[in-house]
Design goal:
The protein is α+β, with helices and mostly antiparallel strands. The chain is built from 22 helices and 25 strands. Strands 5, 8, 11, 12, 13, 14, 15, 16 and 17 form a nine-stranded mixed β-sheet that branches. Strand 19 and strand 20 (about 615-620) form a beta hairpin. Helix 5 (about 205-215) runs antiparallel to helix 6 (about 225-235) and helix 19 (about 735-745) packs across helix 20. The longest helix has 24 residues, at about 270-290. It is globular, with a radius of gyration of 32 Å. The chain starts with about 80 loop residues before the first helix and ends with a helix.
Length: about 800
Amino acid sequence: GNLQLWGNDVESTLNIMSMPLPAASDSSFESCSTFQMDESGPLACVPQYGHDPSEPLLSDFGQQDMAVGFPPRDLYPQVAREMTMVDSKLSVVRISNKNEEILKNLNYRISNPISRQHRRRDRKAKDVFVPGKYLYKQIQGGGPQEKFVEFDFKFYNTTKFAGLENNLPNCYCNPLLQVLYFTYPFCNELLRSTPDPNVEFCIRDELSFLVYMLRQAQGDLPCQAQNLMRALMQSQDALNVGVLSSTMDAQICRSTREIEADVNKEQSLFRRIQTLFRFLCEHLHKEELELKKLKSSSDCKTLAKSVYGFTNSVINKCTKGHVTKKDSLYFQTSVQLPKDTNVEKKFVELLQESLMSESSIRAWCNSCNAYVPMTQKRIVSSLPNVLAINCNVKNLQQLKFFSSTQNGTPWFKTKFYLKTDKAKGHILAMSGDDGQVDDDQWTEYDLISMISMLIDERGKNDYIDPDTNVDSITDTDAHFVAHVKVHPVYNTADAARKEGKWMLFNDFCVTPTDMKDVMQMYGHKKVPCMLFFAKTGSQDVAKKGLKSTPDLTKDGFHSLCGEKPLTYGRQLKNTFTSLNPKTESPGVTGMKIVGIDCEFVALSKTDKQLHPDGSETILKNARLVLARVSVVRGQGPLKNVCFIDDYVRAVEPVYDYLTRYSGLLEGDLDVGRSKHHLTTLKKTYMKLRYLVDQGCHFVGHGLKNDFKMINITVPPDQIIDTVELFRLAHQRYFSLRFLAAYLLKKDIQGVTHDSIEDANIALELYDVYCELKESGTLKAKLQEMYKWGRENKWDLEKLSTEG
């Protein structure tokens, strides 16, 4: 028979550790005579008869690959129920009017080939299928047999745009961060900003770092917002408004900030992301004013104000005619949907009511010196470049507005016009369907982004009550996605296009989409949360492109490396020699090769699942943060001499110092007790970012994971990883200790790890690799190492004895 192996290429293998089968030898078999044996005789005495020498053995055939077509598809339960068996061989599907639309809208979801036991099918809500690209996807490995297989992010994202990982606390903000990144004036200004290394927790600087990462990263390599969340956790204002949740497990001793975050957390997921946007804009505006030391917001045009800000005037008029006026800066407005879904009201009418309203109140009048009845009028007196609108959906019944039509056109408008009249004190809104306006005073707005909440039952029943209160939906019941109209400037391949492409960002899953999909609500599953409309012409400056400003100059880098540590004043261990600004310059024209190694500590424990056979599956990895980074010279007269050895101050409680692997002890990251060169994460990050921008090539072991934990994007051609250099395809990885013992005859990492030693070992291994590559003996050496490892069960003590 034949053994069929389904794979995506001809090199697919069932066992990645398998060895090639030896060819069958030409052996002749002698014919045997009849053999007789009694019942008590052993079966081993029975000879094996030979075969016809003219017929080949099965082992004589070599490996053969043949095309057998696509594997059979799984059927949807709704289709399987309509199937009828004919003659026990043929299955017939009867198409009825009921399921005709179901078959027409079949959408095979993207499934993770690694974790098959966690597959999800497209969900159904009253015969409406939700495409798989909308469903919540988890980053997790497969079963115990697949623990060495990495998660394939490229499977979920074949575009050039990077997604964001969702295995971190407070990752509900991922769609909002993508919207901010793809808003050109906001992104461009952040890329051009210069961070201040002396301000440890600055939201604007962390946003600029994240925007730069998204700009440099590729689609198959998602980014993390870990450093931004870390800065937000240190903001008391963020804790007060309730946009953060605890980053620790309940069983772990937490800081007061962790506890306060859980107490103040906004329970409504729908409201939380709206509050987060308002907080980010207000905080960025406040930070910039403090930086420029201005008290009045009218004296300075900040980033948030120039992009999202607009003036909202509140005019109070008492019965005696006394008028008071107060102008306030707003960054978003809210559209109040009618409670009665049968009320016919246009979208632009509701928008106009949100921008201009009038009500009767009783308030204090300074002129009358008493509480008197007043007429209060709220009106937007200036229009923003990007108008952010909150959709105040109270219950799922109100989604009928977004999916309904009026006079043959959709109720929800993707284009409208606004006009302000300061003299008359009113603002007008007109739909884009009403025809082309000829008045220059009208301002055109187009939809560029939409954040929606996808109700994902995560294992619960598929039916959703339309009367469900949206505010009652929590983190475990839903997640957010973002539809973004990506401007051509973000993709060089689309530079010639005039219109942007619509993309769907679902954490690390990024897929192209269209306007029809944006407008589709999929029953009661998709709830619009925030709408972003850009003023026509506000993004025309994007033709100039996105250009970033270096965070540090050459003098700034050397000055930062020479700064005194946080532990200055006590006797410290001298473990590095800073670069000489006159003779040593990192980069393509100077010191191009550097060695690097990083150590981390755990802020939370690893969640594991124990199986009956004793094996384990990791459900959630421990949250690691950078604790120490060492960078050594890879060229020049001082080769292998360390020039950066930073210990990073811990601002959150450390769950485990991982001393066996990091070499760090309790107190090493404490300003009051550390005897090392202790500094802040931001300063260390900016040093590494400078080396990356200068084109330095980093040599190390397991750098992919290190840079991911540091939260920095390094171009692949600048990474020289000894893990990948010394490895044959479909074979196991070598540890740094094994490579050092076998190739360098050095015993390292005996008791603990030392990052300077590990970085130097990586540089020496790179030199050995270059020699083997040049002599053409690299493959033979690797085969020799694998053979020795299998024969000696990878026991390094035997290697030291042989050496």
